[in-house]
Specification:
Elements: H1 3-23, E1 27-28, E2 38-40, E3 47-50, E4 53-56, E5 61-65, E6 76-84, E7 90-96, E8 108-112, E9 143-150, E10 153-158, E11 161-167, E12 187-192, E13 199-208
Antiparallel strand pairs: 1-13, 2-5, 3-4, 4-13, 5-12, 6-9, 6-13, 7-8, 7-12, 9-10, 10-11
């Protein structure tokens, strides 16, 4: 093989490695200072940054990731650290969309609830699909939340332990009002729940997976 052809193959190989590395890259969605790259569907005052962490408190609202290239996702891994104060309720939505004020009908919700007694679905639940009745974590302590969506599979890990491993059926049955709780594609959103709920997020990062 002549030197020129060898260089061509080497360059192509390095280009392929570069593309592969980029595809596997973890990207930060929260800068620790502002809510840049995020947009509230209502009540933006419910989402503030304090001491490098994102604080959710004040009422029902949802904060959507609108970062370029990450506002409409299909297959991905999402990792974040979460802390709840007593009686807090929150959630991480995915494959959803911003339709303005009100609850989110489209997509799935991964629950955050350690001690909010009015809702029996605890932290780690895939709400109304695969529910946990006991929280694997405690209030006032940071814990790791990891969501993996790949094809028809949804895996939720709390502190590196799998708590949900769900595969969506071809024709899943959903209760009234949850008909759009299906895998498709869409946005990620985090939920502020009520004036008595205070939840914190930090180190929010995402990795795209091949579609």
């Amino acid at each position: 093989m002549n030197l020129g052809l060898a260089s061509l193959f080497l360059s192509a190989g390095l280009f392929s490695i570069s593309i592969s590395a980029h595809a596997d890259e973890w990207v930060s969605l929260f800068d620790g200072k502002t809510t840049n790259g995020w947009q509230a569907n209502e009540k933006p005052e419910c989402f503030t940054v304090e001491n490098g962490v994102l604080k959710l408190n004040g009422g029902m609202a949802h904060l959507f990731c609108v970062k370029d290239g990450y506002s409409d996702l299909k297959n991905f891994e999402l990792k974040t650290e979460v802390k709840t104060l007593p009686s807090a309720n929150s959630g991480i939505f995915f494959h959803t969309e911003n339709r303005g004020p009100g609850g989110l009908k489209k997509g799935y919700e991964a629950q955050i609830n350690t001690s909010f007694v009015k809702d029996p679905r605890k932290t780690g639940s895939l709400v109304d699909v695969s529910d946990l009745t006991q929280s694997p974590v405690s209030d006032s302590e940071w814990f790791d939340y990891h969501i993996i969506v790949n094809g028809k599979s949804i895996v939720i890990k709390i502190n590196d332990k799998i708590v949900v491993d769900y595969t969506e059926d071809e024709h899943p049955t959903r209760k009234k009002g949850r008909e759009e709780r299906l895998l498709s594609h869409g946005a990620i959103a985090i939920q502020a729940h009520d004036p008595n709920s205070t939840t914190y997020f930090r180190n929010i990062r995402i990795k795209k997976l091949p579609d």
